[in-house]
Each structure stands twice: as C-alpha cells, then as structure tokens.
Write a structure and sequence with these properties.
The complex is a heterodimer.
Chain A (H helix, E strand, L loop, with lengths): L5 H19 L2 H16 L8 E3 L9 E3 L8 H17 L5 H13 L1 H9 L4 H30 L19 E5 L4 E5 L5 E6 H12 L9 H10 L5 H12 L4 H8 L3 H13 L3 E5 L2 E4 L1 H18 L1
Helix pairs in contact in A: 1-2, 1-3, 1-4, 3-4, 4-6, 9-12
Chain B lengths: L3 E6 L3 H14 L3 E6 L2 H9 L6 E4 L8 H10 L8 E5 L4 H10 L2 E4 L4 H12 L2
Parallel strand pairs in B: 1-2, 1-3, 3-4, 4-5
The chains are: A mainly alpha, B alpha/beta.
Chain lengths: 306, 125
C-alpha cells in the first residue's frame, strides 16, 4: 500500500467536506464553500498556496494540489485539517456539528483517519467535543426557558404599550381608508403622525410572539398558518424524546408504544411540518421550529396530561 | 449623490415588494431592483447591471440560490458584491454553509432591524 502523504490528507478532507456540503446544497455551491474556507485560512497557513480550488472545473477534478505540499511537516497539515473542520462546526448548532464530523469520518476512510491521528487530528475527540457542546447548549436553553417563565409568569397583554401615544399628547384621530393610514392630531389640531395600521398590528403581533419586528408578507402569513397545525400527543412525545437524547427506532417505538409503521408516519408528518429535519441519510433531529414548538407547548401539554 | 443599488432575488413578488417597502421607507438613497429568478439575476450582472448589494433567496424554481451564489462567487467582477441570503431555510447546515460563502444569512420571516443593520453595515449608510 502506498504511503498516505500530505496531499492525500488535504484532498480527502476537502472531498469529504465537498460530499457533505453538496448533499445539503449543490455541487457548485459546495465548491464555493471549500474555496471560501481555503481563502479564509490561507493567510495563516502560507503553504495553502499549493492548494488551488477550480471553481470553474466543469466535470473534472476541482482540487489541484502541488506536490510541494508534501515537504511540509505533517503536524502543520493536521492543524489545517482541524481548522477546516472547526470552521464548519463553529456555527453548527445542536447535533449538526457532531453529525458533520461523523460524515467526514465515513467519507475519509480508516487509513486517512489513522494518518490524521498521527498528524494530531483526532476526529473522535472532535466529535465528543461537539457532542459536549450540544449537551451544554441544551442545558443552557432549558435553564433560559425556566428563568423566563419565572420572571414573566403569566403575561399580561394590558401592560404592553403600542406606540407610547397617550391622551397627554394626542387630541383626535382620523382613519383615511383610501390610503389605509390612521392620521393622529396633537393638542393644537396639527397632524402629529400617520400610522400604517397593517404594519403596526403585524409588528405588535411580532412583539407578543417574541419575534421582534417581523415583516409578514401574504406568503409568510400562509406559511405561519400552515405551521399552526396541531400535532398529536404521541408526536409531541417523540419531539421531547428526540430533544433529550439519541434514540434508535426500537427504543422510540418501545417508549411511545407504537409500531414501527406508526413511528415512520409520525416522523414523516413532523418532517413535513418542518419540526424535524434530516441531519444524515438515516437520522433526524429537531429544527429550530420543532424546538420552539416544544418549548412553547411543553407547559400546557404537561398540565393537560397531569 | 448616486443612489445605492440593491438587488432582491426572490421568486415571490410579494417578498420583493415587502423588502422594497422596508428599504424605501428607511432611506431615499436606495434604488431597489427586484428580480424573480436566479437566471434573471445573472443576466443583469452579465449586462453590467452591478448592484451594491444583493439579497438572495435560496428556494427558487429552475436555478436555486445556491447555484446563483456559486456563479457570483466565481466571477471576479461580482464576487466583491455583498451577498446576503434571505431565505426560509432554517436548518443548521444551510445556515452554516450559506454563511461561509455569503456575507450574511438571514432567515424568513425576517427581522426588519437585522435587515437594515446589514444595509448599514455593507453600504456604509
């Protein structure tokens, strides 16, 4: 077997990243991702000048590596590989970072993984770190939810001021139906402000739902409505289980007391509602929307069950 | 003073209209160009209609936002244009990979403040 050199290590790592990224985006975009990463770290690792990414590659090889790179100390190559993996994982929240490294491992093969370990890159350790990060984020998220509930208690809508206008500074108002604006007048009868009620109501609803100044187009309203579909108690339980830990199909069916077919149906429904997403070919995890749904409804559902 | 050109690429005309409204209410200094497909965006760029900033949707029929971004990035005349993904794709992989190539990644329904912050940041208003 020929000895794995630096050039192979870089090439295989980048190819693994390409495979992972192109599955989630497109082949062209995956190349753009790799090109951006290499450009970002080129300043720090000068020897990356030997690596060229051909963004206009057609159907051929898009990674060109000058054999000169094989003269570089393997430890430095290890640093680069680690930097590449960490750039991608840095922003990946929840379990996605863990699964990304797992995919890199699968796509790299044993020989490369062991060579990387010799260069000081332990993908297993990186996976563990990512898993630890995920657990910590989960704990922090749970704590924050608890804290918010303690501080706010029952929300009183009466306390929320819309614009700060009061009887002190406003004398009258008039609704201009043709322009859909409300004109308000000050004590002297002068025009004080023109309010677009649609925008204000939408902003107000955004505030109440903690989403800030959200702009709702008709399309967004439709999407939001479609997401309000109720999920069943079992589906909610499934979300809770997946939020708390990794489970295989057998464990999930046992806990939920459903058949595998029923479980599959539930998973597909939650995928369609964008509460779950695939994070690898056969694994799913909660989306932001799934987590939000869980957090918003956890208390109500618990009360009902009790 | 020359107006800053902002291109919005989204297959939903409603979305273009909403963003346009936000930008025009914010400042008179913007010229907003709305295009409803990736192909149309590249066509304009090829015709030297170079904006100062691009908002790009991802999920579009025919040519999606990923491929449009890749095309923009590989062209030396266009790759310096601040590119901001504005999309309903909220999964962590899309956010991360999109964020590596673009200047910003904003998810829909969007936060008006975040959108305007980007404008300030990249157009030095």
């Amino acid at each position: 077997m020929s000895e794995t050199n630096n050039s192979d290590l870089i090439r295989v790592t980048l190819k693994a990243l390409y495979t992972t990224a192109s599955r989630r985006t497109t082949q062209n975009f995956a190349i753009a991702v790799i090109d951006s990463i290499i450009r970002t770290i080129k300043d720090k690792y000068d020897f990356l000048k030997y690596v060229q990414i051909q963004t206009d590659y057609g159907s051929g090889e898009f990674i060109e590596i000058d054999p000169e790179i094989n003269k570089i100390h393997p430890a430095k190559i290890g640093k680069v590989v680690e930097a590449i993996v960490q750039i991608v994982c840095l922003d990946l929240k929840e379990k996605a970072g863990h699964y990304f490294i797992k995919e890199v491992k699968i796509n790299s093969g044993e020989e490369i993984i062991s060579k990387l370990r010799e260069c000081g890159v332990d993908l297993d350790l990186l996976m563990l770190q990512q898993q630890y990060l995920y657990r910590r984020q989960n704990r922090e998220k749970t704590n924050n939810v608890d804290d918010n509930e303690n501080i706010t208690g029952n929300k009183s809508l009466d306390n929320i001021s819309l614009l700060g206008y009061t009887e002190e500074n406003i004398s009258s108002w008039h609704y201009d139906s043709s322009n859909k604006v409300c004109i308000i007048y000050d004590k002297d009868g002068k025009e004080f402000d023109r309010l677009n009620l649609d925008t204000i109501i939408r902003g107000y609803v955004g505030t109440l739902t903690k989403e800030g100044n959200i702009i709702f187009s008709d399309d967004n309203v439709k999407k939001e409505k479609s997401k309000q579909i109720e999920i069943s108690k079992k589906e909610f339980e499934l979300l809770k289980i997946l939020y708390a830990r990794d489970v295989d199909i057998k464990t999930a069916t046992d806990i939920l007391k459903v058949t595998e077919k029923e479980l599959n149906y539930m998973v597909h429904r939650l995928l369609a509602l964008e509460m779950l997403q695939y994070i690898s070919s056969d694994e799913v995890a909660l989306t932001d929307s799934g987590i939000n749904h869980l957090e918003q409804n956890k208390k109500n559902i618990t009360n009902k069950v009790q | 003073m020359m107006k800053k050109k902002i291109m919005i690429v989204d297959d939903e005309p409603d979305q273009i209209y909403t963003i346009k409204l936000v930008l025009e209410n914010y400042s008179d200094n913007f010229e907003v160009i709305g295009v409803v497909s990736g192909e149309q965006c590249l066509e304009l760029l090829k015709n030297n209609e170079i904006p100062d900033l691009i908002f790009l949707d991802i999920m579009m029929p025919e040519m999606n936002g990923w491929d449009v971004a890749a095309e923009i990035k590989k062209n030396s005349n266009w790759n310096k244009i601040p590119l901001i993904f504005l999309t309903a794709k909220t999964d962590p992989f899309s956010k991360t990979l999109g964020g590596i190539v673009s200047h910003e990644y904003i998810t829909k329904p969007f936060d008006k403040k975040k959108l305007l912050d980007c404008i300030d940041k990249y157009l030095n208003k």
